[in-house]
Structure formats: structure tokens, C-alpha cells
Amino acid sequence: MNCCLPKIYNQALLPFQFSLFGSIATCGAMVGALTSGSMADLIGRKGTMAISSCTSVAGWITIYFSKGVMALDVGRLLTGYGMGVFSYVVPVFIAEITPKHVRGAFTTLNMVTLGCGLTATFALGAVLTWRNLALIGIVPCCVQLMGILFIPESPRWLAKMGQDQKFKAALQQLRGKDSDISEEASEIQDYVETLQKMGKSRITDLFQRKYMRSLMIGVGMMVFNQFCGVNGVCYYMSSIFESIGFSSTLGSVVYSSFQVAMCSLTATRMDNTGRKPFLLVSASGMLIGCVLVGTSFFLKVHQVSSASVDAIAVVGLMVYGGSYASGMGAIPWILMSEMFPVNVKGVAGSLASFVDWIGAWTISYTFNYLILWSSYGTFLLYAAVNVLAILFVLIMVPETKGKSLEAIQTALNI
């Protein structure tokens, strides 16, 4: 299989080299995930987002000026680190600043913007050189850096740090100058004071019995978020479409556009329907998508090749991608931002994010090997993972819609 690589990589690569290039960004993301929680606790959510943006800018600049493989890989590591930090701090920040009745929608909109960026990247990549594409990658990072100057810090983080005046001012700014924040402010302060009596938390504290259910749900959802195979499909999407005789550029743009549409639909309905139903529909859709793609590849391997067989694969990929965007892509991050109390959110979030990026690296690294082993077997393997995801959601995951963060965390962790 081949991927859309810069000309530096336009040479015959061994599976090991090809897989390394496809997965190296996730190595940086793993480091970012490990440091994101403690960084967000120490310097705040805004400061952490600023550092992540600066690191991403440095990565894109390194890629733009790269003259060889080493510099290109360093740039990908830096941008990967930025991704790893963003993946934790952004959903946490959004969950902490939004009212409970729209928290799901606002957190899901983060995935909508990611999908829009992916679609734009696929479209621009068809007409621009990779160096020019790297320059464009700098733009959203700079926009976010400027935007951070005009937004308040997370009120819950300010309350945790004992900055009462700034906490109330930030909450008032977020809710509107004429809004009565007394009840919400009191609930947050009372909960933070209760947690502070427990002292500073370490990662070993997560394994106490009172946090065990939150930990199992948070880590478990991140496992299914990645081991459903989404990063392998995304990284090698162009090659998959080419293998079934479909335009790689058109297929990639349509795939990512469909994801944006499905994610947008989820954002408008999640706070009414709930997290759990969307997760079940999402995992079921991904199961169907994997079976369709696997069936198409099975028929092609056994020399049953026709337009209808290729159409089955295209439909399967669209069902798979749309289903992922409708639930499994965003909701695990929403649950992670909702379930953990503020005193352990840093270490818990870092662990959950690290597990997610370990999964991303594993899938992106092994996908090429799995396809070489068996194209249809790969997708049937991912189908089996989605069966387990459905069972996990049914048994373990609670419904959190319409509840305050403090109420969710008290129910799960006490």
C-alpha cells in the first residue's frame, strides 16, 4: 500500500519504515498526553493551550524548512505533542466553562471543527504542495494563540487554586453580566473545598476503590475509541480508496465531509437524547461498516470483482466513518472531562489520554501489517472490537446528560 507522502519519502519503503512514518506523530502525542494533565493543573487551561499552540507552530515550521527525513520526523513529533496536549485540555476546558444543559453539544463541536479541518486538509492537499500545506497548518495555531487572550480561564480551575475573585469574575463573564451565578458558584466552591481536604492527588490515588468505576470507564472508552481501527483507516484512507478503484482525493473529502455532517447532527441532539444512546448507535454502525468493507475485500480476494463489490466497500467506509463521528469519536472525551473530580482530573486525564494515544500508535503502526496479512480479516477484527464496545457501553457507562459536573462526580466517585 502507498500513502500520500512528501517527495522526501517518495521512494520504496519497507513495511517497517512505512509504518513508522505513518505512526510517528502519535509518539509525540503520547508524550503530550502524559504531560497535559499536570501542566493544566499547574499553569491553567489557557496556559496549557498556549504552550500546545506554540509547539504545533514550531512543528509546522520545522516541516516546512525540512531538507531530509530526520527534520520531517522531528516536525511531526512536535505537532504530535501539540495534538496530545490539545486532546486532553480542550474537552476539559469546554466542559468546565459550559452550562450543564449544553455541555455535550459544545464539547462535541470540538470534534466538528476537527472534522472540518480534516476535510479542508484533504481538499487542499490535492492542489497544494506539502510545504505550502505545512504553512497553512500554522494559521489555526496562531488564531488560537490570539483567541486565548480574549477568553476567561476555567472557573473551576481558579476555584481550585483559591483565586476566589477571579473565579467569580470568570463565571460571571461566561454566564453573562446580568445572570445570577450565586447558586452555581456556591456548588462549585463547596465541592472544591471538599476535594481539597483530601490533599494533593498522585496517580496511585486513582486506583482507590472510590475512583475505580470512573477509571475503568475512562480508560475503557479510550481503548474502544482507538482499537476500533479508526486511525489506521484515516492514515491509509487514500490507499484504501485506490485499492477499490475509487478516487482517493474525492473519497477522502467525501468521507471527512460525511463525518462532519454526522458529528454536527450529534451535537444538536446529544443533550436531549443523551450520551449512551449515541454510543450504542455509533458502535453498532461501525460494526456494520466493518462487516461491509470486510465482505467487499473478501469477495475481491476470491476474485469476485465488480462495480457492486467496490460499491459495498465505499458504502461500508462511509457508514464506518459517519458512525464513528456520531458517537465514539467525541463522547469518550466528553465522559473523560465529566467523570473525574478536579483533584484527580489532571492525573486521570493524562492517563486516559495516554491510553488513547497508545492505541492510536498501535493501530496506525500495525494497520499496514494487518492489511498485508489479510485485508478482510483486518476489518472483521475491528468488527469484533465494536461488538465488545457495545457490551461495555451497555454494562458500564452511565448517562450523564443534564447533570452538573459535581453531581456526576459525586455519584461515581463516592
UniProtKB/TrEMBL annotation:
PROSITE patterns: MFS (PS50850). Belongs to the major facilitator superfamily. Sugar transporter (TC 2.A.1.1) family. The keyword Transmembrane applies. Residues 1-401 form the Major facilitator superfamily (MFS) profile domain. It holds the Pfam family Sugar_tr. It is found in: Membrane. The lineage of its organism: Eukaryota, Viridiplantae, Streptophyta, Embryophyta, Tracheophyta. It is a multi-pass membrane protein. GO terms for cellular component: membrane. The chain crosses the membrane at residues 16-35, 47-66, 78-97, 109-127, 133-151, 215-238, 244-266, 278-299, 311-335, 347-367, 379-397. SUPFAM superfamilies: MFS general substrate transporter (SSF103473). This is Major facilitator superfamily (MFS) profile domain-containing protein. InterPro entries: MFS_dom (IPR020846), MFS_ERD6/Tret1-like (IPR044775), MFS_sugar_transport-like (IPR005828), MFS_trans_sf (IPR036259), MFS_Trehalose_Transporter (IPR050549), Sugar/inositol_transpt (IPR003663). GO terms for molecular function: sugar transmembrane transporter activity. Keywords: Membrane, Sugar transport, Transmembrane, Transmembrane helix, Transport.
